[in-house]
Amino acid sequence: MNIDFVILAAGKGTRMGGDSPKVLANLAGQPMLQNLINTTNNFKQSKRIVVVGYKANEVKKQIKTTKNTDWVKQNKQLGTGHAVKQALTSLRKGSVSVILYGDVPLVSSATLNKLISSAKNNSLALLTFNKDNPSGYGRIVRKGRNAIDQIVEEKDASASQKKITEVNSGIMAIKSNFLSKLIPLVKNKNAAKEFYLTDIVELANKNKISVKALLLKDNTEVLGANNLQELHDLERAYQKRVAESLIRSGVRVADSSRIDIRGDVEVGRGSFIDVNSVFDGTNTIGRGVSIGPGCFISNSIIKNDVTIHANTVIEDSIVGNDCEVGPFARIRGGTEMQSGSELGNFVEANRSKVGKSSKAKHLTYLGDTTLGARVNVGAGTITCNYDGNKKHKTIAEDDVFIGSNSSLVAPVKLGQGSYTGAGSVITKNVGKGQLAVGRGKQVNLKKKKK
Ligand code: UD1
Ligand code: CA
Fold first, then answer.
1. Cα–Cα distance between 119 and 98 in angstroms, integer?
2. How many whole angstroms separate alpha carbon 410 and alpha carbon 385?
3. How far apart are CA 225 and CA 196, in angstroms?
4. What is the CATH number of domain 3-222?
5. Cβ distance 333 to 350 under 8 Å?
6. DSSP conformation letters of 116-172
7. Looking at ligand 1, which atom is closest to the CA of residue 197?
8. Atom of ligand 1 nearest to the CA of 223
9. Domain segments of the chain: what residues?
10. 3-state secondary structure at position 403
C-alpha cells in the first residue's frame, strides 16, 4: 500500500527565539526535519509531502530529500489543520496518510508501522503518550477505556481536562480518502482562532470512523521541541538512547550521559569510549579501539585495536590497525595512517600518508607529506608545504630518520634510509642513505674578561 507522509514544517517557532525556522534547529547533528525525512525514507512505496511556509526557501535548501518528495506552500500559518489541507491534492488515491510534525522529529519506524497497520483497518490511528507535566500538549479525552472522544488543546481545556496526562503526540495515520473528507470540515472556532488538525478526532467520531490510540510507553521518541529547553531535553534523551544501544552492542561507554553522536557511528565490540567525546557525520570504528576523553571524530574510519589518547581531533581521515594517536593530535584532510603508525602529542597531519610503523611522536606538522614505512620524525619537525601561493609535497622514503627540529622545505624528497641532522633546514633532495646537515656551524668563543 502507498504511504503518503504529510510533514508539517511551515511554522516559525516563535518560542525557540531567533529567526531561523524551528524545523531547522539542530538535533543530533542535523536539522530536526532531516531526522524525520530520513525516517520516512525507510518506507517502501512512500511519498513525502512537506508543508513549508516561514522561510520556505531556506528550509528547502537545507534539507536533503529523495525524489519522491513534494514541497507544498502554506502561505499563512492558520493552524495544523489548515497546513494539512494544503497537502490534500498531493495525496495518492488509495494511500494511507501519515501526519508528522516537523518539531516531533524522533519517532521510530517501528512505531509508525504500528500506526499504519491500525489505519489500514479503517481507523484514525493516533499516537499518544503520558506526560507528568502535560502543559502545552493537546489532551486526550476518552469516553471509555477504548474510545476517544476528542483532543482538547491547552488553550481550550477546562480545569479538569488540564489534569489529563495522556497527550497527543501530533502523529496520526488515516486512509487518505477519509482525511480528504474530514479536513475541509475543520473550523477555527477556538481560543487561538486556528484550524486545529486535532479537531478531526471529533469529526471522525461524527462520521463513524473509529478512533484508535496507540499509547506509547517510552515517550522519548515523541517529545516535541517548542523551545530551547525542550530541544535540549530531546537531544539528551536521544543521545542517551544511542549510547545505551552502543552499550548493548558490546561497546564500553564510560558515561552514557557524556557522549554525543551527531550522525551515524558504527563501533566494533570490545571498544571503549571515555567521557566527553563527540562523533560527527559518518564514522566507522573497529574492534578493541580505545578512545580517550574529550576527542572529536568526524567522518573518519578507525580500524581495529587503535588507541586514541585524550583531546584528539580526527577529521576525514583513516587510522589503520594498531595505530596510536594523541594526546592533543589533529589528523585531517584525508590523512591515512597505516598500521602500527603513531602520531603523538601536538602533532598535526594534513593531507598526508603515514606508512607502516612510522612515528612522529611530538610537536610536528606534516602537510602534503608521504612517509614510507618505519620513518622516524623527530620532535619539532615541520614540513614547509606552502610558499604563499601553492602547496608542495614532502616525501620521506622507508627507514628515513629525521632529526629533531628539522624544517623540510617542500617540494623535497628524502631517499630511503637517509638522515637529517637536528635543527636542519632541508631545501634540497637527500639521496639514499645520506646524512644531510643544513644548519649554521657552532662556534665556541672565548668570553672577554672585563
Ligand atoms: C500540536 C498539537 C497538540 C500536540 C502537540 C504535540 C495541534 C492543534 N496541536 O501543538 O495537540 O500535543 O502538537 O507536539 O495540532 N505548523 C504548520 N502550519 C501551521 C501551524 C503549525 O506547518 O499553520 C507546523 C509547525 O511548524 C510544527 C507543527 O506544525 O512543526 C506543530 O505546530 P505547533 O505550533 O508546534 O503545535 P503545538 O502547539 O506544539
Ligand atoms: Ca509543537
1. 9
2. 5
3. 19
4. 3.90.550.10
5. yes
6. HHHHHTTEEEEEEEE-SS-TTSPEEEESSSS-EEEEE-GGG--HHHHT--EEEEEEE
7. 15
8. 14
9. 3-222, 242-436
10. coil
Identify which ligand lies nearest to the alpha carbon of 200. 1
pLDDT tens-digit map of 292-311: 999 999 999 999 999 999 99
Asked if the model's pLDDT at residue 145 lies above 80, the reply is no
pLDDT in tens, 346-372: 999 999 999 999 999 999 999 999 999
Which H helix or E strand runs over 359? strand 359-367
What's the CATH superfamily of 242-436?
Hexapeptide repeat proteins (2.160.10.10)
Q: What pLDDT band is residue 55 in, cutting at 50, 70 and 90?
A: very high
Chain segment 158-199, per-residue pLDDT in tens: 999 999 999 999 999 999 999 999 999 999 999 999 999 999
Chain centroid offset of residue 344 CA: 28
List C-alpha distances in Å: 272 to 242, 289, 310, 352, 388.
15, 6, 13, 27, 42
User: Is residue 233 pLDDT above 80, yes or no?
Assistant: yes
Q: Identify whether 362 is a catalytic site residue.
A: yes
Within 6 A (CB) of ligand 1 lie 8-11, 23, 51, 74, 77-80, 82-83, 101-104, 137-138, 151, 153, 167-170, 196-198, 224, 226
Q: Which pTM does this prediction carry?
A: 0.89
Q: What number does the ligand 1 atom closest to the CA of 11 have?
A: 26
In this predicted model, what pLDDT tens digit does every residue of 384-410 receive, in sequence order?
Answer: 999 999 999 999 999 999 999 999 999
Percent of the residues in the chain that have a pLDDT greater than 70, as a whole number = 100
With CA atoms as reference, report the closest residue to 105 among 218, 198, 8, 201: 8
